[in-house]
Amino acid sequence: MTKKSIRLGDVVDRFGGQLFGNPEQGVVGIAPLSDATEEQITFLSNPKFRTQATASKAVALILSEADHNAIGDAYIGTRIITANPYVYFAKLAQYFFALNSEPVESGIHPSAWVSPQATVAASAYIGPHASIEAGAIIGDGAWIGAGVAIAKRVAIGAQTRINANVSIYHDCVIGERCVVHSGAVIGADGFGFANEKGKWVKIPQTGRVLIGNDVEIGANTSIDRGALADTIIENGVILDNQIQIGHNCHIGENTAMAGCVGVAGSAKIGKNCTFGGAAMVLGHLTIADNVHISSGSMVSRSILEPGQYTGFYPLAKNADWEKTAAIVRNLGSMRDKLKAVEKAIKQNEANSKDIQG
Amino acid sequence: MTKKSIRLGDVVDRFGGQLFGNPEQGVVGIAPLSDATEEQITFLSNPKFRTQATASKAVALILSEADHNAIGDAYIGTRIITANPYVYFAKLAQYFFALNSEPVESGIHPSAWVSPQATVAASAYIGPHASIEAGAIIGDGAWIGAGVAIAKRVAIGAQTRINANVSIYHDCVIGERCVVHSGAVIGADGFGFANEKGKWVKIPQTGRVLIGNDVEIGANTSIDRGALADTIIENGVILDNQIQIGHNCHIGENTAMAGCVGVAGSAKIGKNCTFGGAAMVLGHLTIADNVHISSGSMVSRSILEPGQYTGFYPLAKNADWEKTAAIVRNLGSMRDKLKAVEKAIKQNEANSKDIQG
Amino acid sequence: MTKKSIRLGDVVDRFGGQLFGNPEQGVVGIAPLSDATEEQITFLSNPKFRTQATASKAVALILSEADHNAIGDAYIGTRIITANPYVYFAKLAQYFFALNSEPVESGIHPSAWVSPQATVAASAYIGPHASIEAGAIIGDGAWIGAGVAIAKRVAIGAQTRINANVSIYHDCVIGERCVVHSGAVIGADGFGFANEKGKWVKIPQTGRVLIGNDVEIGANTSIDRGALADTIIENGVILDNQIQIGHNCHIGENTAMAGCVGVAGSAKIGKNCTFGGAAMVLGHLTIADNVHISSGSMVSRSILEPGQYTGFYPLAKNADWEKTAAIVRNLGSMRDKLKAVEKAIKQNEANSKDIQG
């Protein structure tokens, strides 16, 4: 299949930036500096790769003004100058992706089951063996993959894509232009139990999950419904795979979480936060906006001040770890010894003064 | 829809407690102190919220005798006094939940596939695109959601609810009144391999998973089948989402695990234990009854004594962590310096005695 | 059902080893020392169980030459001597497993959906409610479980088993003789976004997942597709449950990962490595061949030297941990105090010399 081409003039009309070169030049795709072919455009997002940029085979280069000036005559191809070449790359890659994609299906697959009481937009697609229960609403252009289970009264916004084998429990709401990856579970019961003489008494979980627009939810990620109030994921949140979000959590706009993160119930997390892989947040905590948690770190108290926070044991050769871990276990005794030493020195100094005095 | 109401007199007949007020008063639901409306009942489970309790709009309040005495005339509504208001809340919430729920479906959905060699109780429900293989037994009132895969000879107990897209492998047994949430996998092969000159030789996993009564299993949780013997989950165990239970584990009655916990193969865990989120247990360990493991903690040795155990690196601002982590890496040298100092002081004291002596 | 029997003479013909005893003796299965019946064979893989071995009811014993010599006349049954009894056990267990298994199904279940543009080998099995999209190729003897979703142009190699409710995204390739367990997701989008003034711009993920031969993938494990290049899992890799593999990772032959491991994007991991449960690897790192990471350890830098590496905070009684964690937080001040002490001692010694001098 021949890849479709776009004129560079059209690229800057669409995505902005300052073009240095022939606007009639066409490109068929975007690729990293080292991989790009002579029919593609490439991008320089890190000054340390300037030499690679000048050597790239790409017919055109997206770069910042600073890199443009620094490179000067060393690069002879066409340039597009923009404030953020990496974002420019992302948008142009999206454009090429859509340009070369198969047309999106619509209609209901003959093997799907759709309740007569459900409402499915004519432009939506319902895949093989998907099931849509009574009262559910599937918006314009939404795409529901194979084996997806949509329970009663769920709402799926326009242009949202729910991939194969996702499960969405009753009454949950998902906004527009979201992507939910396979195996994700939205709206299962939160983990709420009262303990009566050792036995657990289940507390019914009657809240919902409300997910905003432009949210991405990774494969095998779970987001529990609220106990009484709702679990809320605001617009623009991005969650990677294997993440656990407990009941009644509230995650602010544009916050990002990498794989394997866990957030216990009722945590309130601000906007524009980032969580590295396998970071964990205890329940009922408050995390301010613009907090960044490093991978593998355990958040056991509220964080009210923006910044980067970390807490994991540094890796070492096993034999070295055995040593340091044994000392960590006995840090109390080490501190006591240090205090004794400090005291002895003071005593010594006092004695010494007596002698010298 | 009008919510159904219950007389307070009927509440205490059903759930116990001592009523102070009008038994004819009806309530339509239960809610927390701050959310409850004038038609609802509320509960006080923590003395520090006494002031909120006296200000609640609720028509009635569930509380302990101690709080009842402490509050005195400050609260003018109806009261129910009970030993454990939180458990009372849980039970009453279950009651209202059932009262206001739609009637449970029964019968086999036309899109489901049920083997002619399977046995399905007439009162059970089999949802869209579920599959029930030969020899499987589905008990009275069991509820099998959309896309659930029940393999050969699996037994599902009465009143158990298996939510959408759960997978249960052949020969596993699940007790009565259990809840299994979407995406859970029960009975996949344990991780058993022998290493022959670098290559892994698979050991067939021929045991089963046996799950007792009143067990809850969270979304996307995995419980592996035993290698030769069975993996056993006793009555009343509650497991949150994204949990991994390895082959041949044995988990005692009423033990609770929060999200993201991992338990490696052949661990034997006692009764009434609790595991905080993302706690990890190595294989072949024994954990006594009534052991409580904090979130994010790694259990690398058997624990034979009840109590609370913890082990995670404390979170800090990243710059501070960089410093402390560097010191942790070199704790051996720090200890050596301390020893040298101690020795020097002893030497000094000896010298000093000589001088003074 | 009577279990099928095999002559010991046939066992050594098939799997090697030196037989001491009657080759006409039949065995119907293999079991551990303490469980084996008089009709079974057992194995001794650890010298510390020699006494148990001599007491076993099994009609025959697989053991090493060293154990054979050490045991001498204490054991009177038949023996098979081999270099690696545990591997011998695994192979013989596989043999018995196959011998006593039901014949594997083939053909397409009437409730499955197979695109007319897909290619399914006549000897393959497609289970209930599975879906196979256009362009997919299902190899000889492959087994596709209930509710599995195979997207466009996916290739599944011969004899590979895909268990119930697995999701495989378009264009991914899985080799021969693999096992993929339920809930696994292969080929979901990697977590790639550019940040434009706080908002996330999605980078299309156009690479694939390429999985070699003889790979095992555990329940609810996720392996993301590459962003531009492919994510690669080489031959013989074994992955346990609940694992996350980010986009563009490359995992070398025969590497093994236990449950709950997370590997961030673009990590390059060598051959014959092992990762304990819940170990985590940051993105873009390189891990050499034969590196072994302990459970619960966080790999935050590349590891270029083979060996065992560890990094987790040692578990303690909670009260003790509270103490040591407080000290860890203040290790900087402890180090400063130690320095001050060292200085004071030097000063003291100098003074002392002055006095004595």
Automatic annotation (TrEMBL), chains A, B, C:
Active site: 247
CDD domains, A to Z: LbH_LpxD (cd03352)
Domain (UDP-3-O-[3-hydroxymyristoyl] glucosamine N-acyltransferase non-repeat region): residue spans on this chain: 27-94
PANTHER family reported for this sequence: UDP-3-O-ACYLGLUCOSAMINE N-ACYLTRANSFERASE, UDP-3-O-ACYLGLUCOSAMINE N-ACYLTRANSFERASE 1, MITOCHONDRIAL-RELATED
Highest taxon of source: Bacteria
Enzyme class: transferase
Lineage: Bacteria, Pseudomonadati, Pseudomonadota, Betaproteobacteria, Burkholderiales
E.C. number(s) listed in UniProt: 2.3.1.191
Pathway: Bacterial outer membrane biogenesis; LPS lipid A biosynthesis
Name of the protein this chain belongs to: UDP-3-O-acylglucosamine N-acyltransferase
This protein's encoding gene: lpxD
NCBIfam families reported in the protein's UniProt record: lipid_A_lpxD (TIGR01853), PRK00892.1 (NF002060)
